[in-house]
Specification:
The protein has about 240 residues and is an alpha/beta fold. It contains 9 helices and 7 strands. A hairpin with a 5-residue loop joins strand 1 and strand 2. Helix 2 packs parallel to helix 3 and helix 6 packs parallel to helix 8.
Protein backbone atom coordinates (compact mmCIF):
# COMPACT_ATOMS: atom_id res chain seq x y z
CA UNK A 1 0.00 0.00 0.00
CA UNK A 2 1.35 3.42 -0.95
CA UNK A 3 1.85 5.94 1.84
CA UNK A 4 1.12 9.58 1.03
CA UNK A 5 3.85 12.10 1.67
CA UNK A 6 3.14 14.22 4.73
CA UNK A 7 4.35 17.36 2.95
CA UNK A 8 2.47 17.18 -0.35
CA UNK A 9 -0.17 14.50 0.28
CA UNK A 10 0.96 12.65 -2.83
CA UNK A 11 0.52 15.66 -5.16
CA UNK A 12 4.26 15.96 -5.78
CA UNK A 13 4.27 19.77 -5.26
CA UNK A 14 4.34 21.94 -2.16
CA UNK A 15 3.48 25.62 -1.68
CA UNK A 16 6.20 27.89 -0.25
CA UNK A 17 6.14 31.49 0.94
CA UNK A 18 9.31 33.60 0.89
CA UNK A 19 10.26 36.45 3.24
CA UNK A 20 8.43 38.97 1.05
CA UNK A 21 5.23 36.95 1.24
CA UNK A 22 5.45 35.69 -2.34
CA UNK A 23 3.90 32.28 -2.85
CA UNK A 24 5.40 29.70 -5.18
CA UNK A 25 5.03 26.00 -5.93
CA UNK A 26 8.05 23.72 -5.92
CA UNK A 27 8.68 20.03 -6.40
CA UNK A 28 8.27 18.14 -3.10
CA UNK A 29 11.25 16.34 -1.62
CA UNK A 30 9.45 13.02 -2.11
CA UNK A 31 9.24 13.68 -5.85
CA UNK A 32 12.88 14.76 -5.95
CA UNK A 33 13.86 11.46 -4.28
CA UNK A 34 11.78 9.49 -6.79
CA UNK A 35 13.37 11.34 -9.71
CA UNK A 36 16.84 10.76 -8.28
CA UNK A 37 16.13 7.05 -7.84
CA UNK A 38 14.92 6.82 -11.44
CA UNK A 39 18.05 8.55 -12.76
CA UNK A 40 20.28 6.18 -10.78
CA UNK A 41 18.33 3.19 -12.10
CA UNK A 42 18.77 4.46 -15.67
CA UNK A 43 22.53 4.90 -15.28
CA UNK A 44 23.31 1.18 -15.83
CA UNK A 45 25.51 0.97 -12.73
CA UNK A 46 26.42 -2.73 -12.23
CA UNK A 47 24.95 -4.40 -9.16
CA UNK A 48 28.45 -4.94 -7.74
CA UNK A 49 28.90 -1.16 -7.52
CA UNK A 50 25.39 -0.03 -6.55
CA UNK A 51 26.55 0.54 -2.96
CA UNK A 52 29.52 2.71 -3.95
CA UNK A 53 29.15 6.22 -2.61
CA UNK A 54 31.80 8.75 -1.69
CA UNK A 55 31.01 8.43 2.01
CA UNK A 56 31.91 4.72 1.96
CA UNK A 57 35.21 5.16 0.11
CA UNK A 58 37.91 4.04 2.57
CA UNK A 59 41.15 5.97 2.90
CA UNK A 60 42.23 5.25 6.50
CA UNK A 61 42.82 1.50 6.51
CA UNK A 62 46.29 0.14 7.51
CA UNK A 63 49.02 0.99 4.96
CA UNK A 64 46.61 3.09 2.89
CA UNK A 65 48.51 5.12 0.29
CA UNK A 66 48.19 8.91 0.80
CA UNK A 67 47.08 9.23 -2.83
CA UNK A 68 43.72 7.65 -1.94
CA UNK A 69 42.86 10.44 0.46
CA UNK A 70 43.91 13.04 -2.11
CA UNK A 71 41.83 11.33 -4.81
CA UNK A 72 38.83 11.23 -2.46
CA UNK A 73 39.20 14.95 -1.77
CA UNK A 74 39.47 15.69 -5.51
CA UNK A 75 36.30 13.67 -6.13
CA UNK A 76 34.34 15.67 -3.55
CA UNK A 77 35.73 18.92 -4.92
CA UNK A 78 34.62 17.91 -8.42
CA UNK A 79 31.05 17.28 -7.24
CA UNK A 80 30.96 20.65 -5.47
CA UNK A 81 32.27 22.44 -8.57
CA UNK A 82 29.88 20.75 -11.02
CA UNK A 83 28.66 21.98 -13.48
CA UNK A 84 29.64 25.66 -13.53
CA UNK A 85 33.30 25.44 -12.55
CA UNK A 86 33.97 22.12 -14.26
CA UNK A 87 32.58 23.49 -17.56
CA UNK A 88 32.45 20.14 -19.34
CA UNK A 89 35.74 18.88 -17.92
CA UNK A 90 35.82 15.31 -16.63
CA UNK A 91 38.27 13.13 -14.72
CA UNK A 92 40.90 10.58 -15.75
CA UNK A 93 41.32 8.26 -12.75
CA UNK A 94 44.48 6.16 -13.06
CA UNK A 95 45.85 3.43 -10.83
CA UNK A 96 46.68 -0.24 -10.53
CA UNK A 97 44.12 -3.02 -10.09
CA UNK A 98 42.05 -2.96 -6.91
CA UNK A 99 42.82 0.53 -5.57
CA UNK A 100 39.18 1.67 -5.81
CA UNK A 101 39.01 3.57 -9.11
CA UNK A 102 35.55 2.30 -10.07
CA UNK A 103 34.19 2.87 -6.55
CA UNK A 104 35.38 6.47 -6.70
CA UNK A 105 33.95 7.04 -10.19
CA UNK A 106 30.56 5.56 -9.28
CA UNK A 107 30.55 7.54 -6.03
CA UNK A 108 31.03 10.73 -8.02
CA UNK A 109 28.19 9.82 -10.37
CA UNK A 110 25.89 8.97 -7.47
CA UNK A 111 26.63 12.33 -5.85
CA UNK A 112 26.10 14.23 -9.11
CA UNK A 113 22.73 12.54 -9.61
CA UNK A 114 21.52 13.09 -6.04
CA UNK A 115 23.03 16.51 -5.33
CA UNK A 116 23.20 18.12 -8.77
CA UNK A 117 20.28 16.48 -10.59
CA UNK A 118 22.61 15.12 -13.27
CA UNK A 119 21.79 12.31 -15.70
CA UNK A 120 24.55 9.73 -16.05
CA UNK A 121 25.53 6.49 -17.75
CA UNK A 122 28.04 3.76 -16.79
CA UNK A 123 29.75 1.62 -19.41
CA UNK A 124 32.53 -0.91 -19.09
CA UNK A 125 34.85 -0.17 -22.01
CA UNK A 126 35.07 -3.80 -23.12
CA UNK A 127 31.32 -4.35 -22.89
CA UNK A 128 30.63 -1.23 -24.94
CA UNK A 129 32.97 -2.33 -27.71
CA UNK A 130 31.43 -5.80 -27.67
CA UNK A 131 27.92 -4.37 -28.03
CA UNK A 132 29.02 -2.20 -30.95
CA UNK A 133 30.66 -5.16 -32.68
CA UNK A 134 27.59 -7.30 -32.08
CA UNK A 135 25.41 -4.69 -33.81
CA UNK A 136 27.15 -5.59 -37.10
CA UNK A 137 25.52 -9.04 -36.92
CA UNK A 138 22.56 -9.07 -39.39
CA UNK A 139 20.46 -11.06 -36.91
CA UNK A 140 20.74 -8.31 -34.26
CA UNK A 141 18.07 -5.62 -34.27
CA UNK A 142 20.10 -2.79 -32.72
CA UNK A 143 22.37 -0.61 -34.86
CA UNK A 144 25.73 0.95 -34.02
CA UNK A 145 24.14 4.39 -33.82
CA UNK A 146 21.43 3.16 -31.43
CA UNK A 147 24.11 1.85 -29.08
CA UNK A 148 26.32 4.92 -29.35
CA UNK A 149 23.63 7.61 -29.13
CA UNK A 150 23.14 7.28 -25.33
CA UNK A 151 26.93 7.28 -24.94
CA UNK A 152 27.19 10.48 -26.97
CA UNK A 153 24.23 12.16 -25.23
CA UNK A 154 24.85 11.23 -21.56
CA UNK A 155 25.34 14.31 -19.42
CA UNK A 156 27.94 12.38 -17.39
CA UNK A 157 29.55 9.21 -18.79
CA UNK A 158 31.68 6.76 -16.82
CA UNK A 159 33.94 4.84 -19.20
CA UNK A 160 35.39 2.13 -16.97
CA UNK A 161 38.65 0.27 -17.69
CA UNK A 162 39.65 2.30 -20.74
CA UNK A 163 42.44 0.53 -22.62
CA UNK A 164 41.50 -2.96 -21.40
CA UNK A 165 40.58 -4.11 -24.93
CA UNK A 166 43.41 -5.24 -27.22
CA UNK A 167 44.18 -2.28 -29.50
CA UNK A 168 43.27 -2.54 -33.17
CA UNK A 169 42.56 0.04 -35.84
CA UNK A 170 38.82 -0.41 -35.31
CA UNK A 171 39.18 0.02 -31.54
CA UNK A 172 41.19 3.22 -31.98
CA UNK A 173 38.64 4.61 -34.46
CA UNK A 174 35.74 3.80 -32.11
CA UNK A 175 37.44 5.39 -29.10
CA UNK A 176 38.22 8.46 -31.20
CA UNK A 177 34.57 8.75 -32.28
CA UNK A 178 33.29 8.55 -28.70
CA UNK A 179 35.83 10.90 -27.13
CA UNK A 180 35.82 13.48 -29.93
CA UNK A 181 32.02 13.64 -29.99
CA UNK A 182 31.82 14.18 -26.24
CA UNK A 183 34.71 16.66 -26.32
CA UNK A 184 33.05 18.75 -29.03
CA UNK A 185 29.73 18.75 -27.15
CA UNK A 186 31.48 19.62 -23.83
CA UNK A 187 30.01 16.54 -22.13
CA UNK A 188 31.52 15.38 -18.83
CA UNK A 189 33.43 12.09 -19.10
CA UNK A 190 34.87 10.19 -16.13
CA UNK A 191 37.44 7.61 -17.22
CA UNK A 192 39.12 4.88 -15.18
CA UNK A 193 42.14 2.95 -16.40
CA UNK A 194 44.84 0.60 -15.12
CA UNK A 195 47.33 2.13 -17.57
CA UNK A 196 49.52 5.12 -16.78
CA UNK A 197 48.89 8.03 -19.13
CA UNK A 198 52.60 8.63 -19.69
CA UNK A 199 55.84 6.65 -19.71
CA UNK A 200 57.48 6.72 -16.28
CA UNK A 201 61.29 6.58 -16.28
CA UNK A 202 62.64 3.67 -18.28
CA UNK A 203 59.83 1.20 -17.58
CA UNK A 204 58.73 -1.00 -20.48
CA UNK A 205 55.15 -1.34 -19.27
CA UNK A 206 52.40 -0.33 -21.68
CA UNK A 207 50.89 3.11 -21.26
CA UNK A 208 47.39 4.34 -22.01
CA UNK A 209 48.82 5.89 -25.17
CA UNK A 210 49.91 2.43 -26.32
CA UNK A 211 46.36 1.11 -25.78
CA UNK A 212 44.25 3.90 -27.32
CA UNK A 213 46.76 5.89 -29.38
CA UNK A 214 48.73 9.01 -28.46
CA UNK A 215 46.29 11.23 -30.35
CA UNK A 216 43.40 10.19 -28.17
CA UNK A 217 45.56 10.42 -25.06
CA UNK A 218 46.22 14.03 -25.99
CA UNK A 219 42.47 14.59 -26.40
CA UNK A 220 41.81 13.12 -22.94
CA UNK A 221 44.36 15.50 -21.43
CA UNK A 222 42.25 18.36 -22.79
CA UNK A 223 38.90 17.03 -21.57
CA UNK A 224 39.82 15.43 -18.22
CA UNK A 225 41.67 16.37 -15.04
CA UNK A 226 44.07 13.63 -13.97
CA UNK A 227 43.54 11.86 -10.61
CA UNK A 228 46.22 9.36 -9.58
CA UNK A 229 45.60 6.48 -7.17
CA UNK A 230 48.38 4.26 -5.86
CA UNK A 231 48.67 1.31 -3.50
CA UNK A 232 48.24 -2.44 -3.34
CA UNK A 233 45.14 -4.37 -4.41
CA UNK A 234 42.63 -3.58 -1.65
CA UNK A 235 40.40 -6.48 -2.68
CA UNK A 236 43.21 -8.99 -2.29
CA UNK A 237 43.93 -7.79 1.21
CA UNK A 238 40.47 -7.30 2.73
CA UNK A 239 37.74 -8.35 0.31
CA UNK A 240 38.54 -11.98 -0.49
CA UNK A 241 35.55 -14.07 -1.50
CA UNK A 242 34.29 -16.49 1.10
CA UNK A 243 31.18 -18.43 2.07
CA UNK A 244 29.29 -17.91 5.32
Amino acid sequence: MEVECEKCGGAGMVLTVDAAGRRAARVCICQQAAQSSHRIGSARIPRRYEHCILDSFETDFPKADPSLRKAHWEARRFVEAYPVETDGKGLLITGSIGVGKTHLAVGILMALVKNRGAHGLFFDYRELLKQIQNSYNPSVNSTELEILKPVFDAEVLILDELGAQKPTGWVWDTVALILNTRYNDKKTTIITTNYADRQAGTTKEETLGDRIGDRMLSRISEMCVRVEMSGSDFRQGTKKARFG
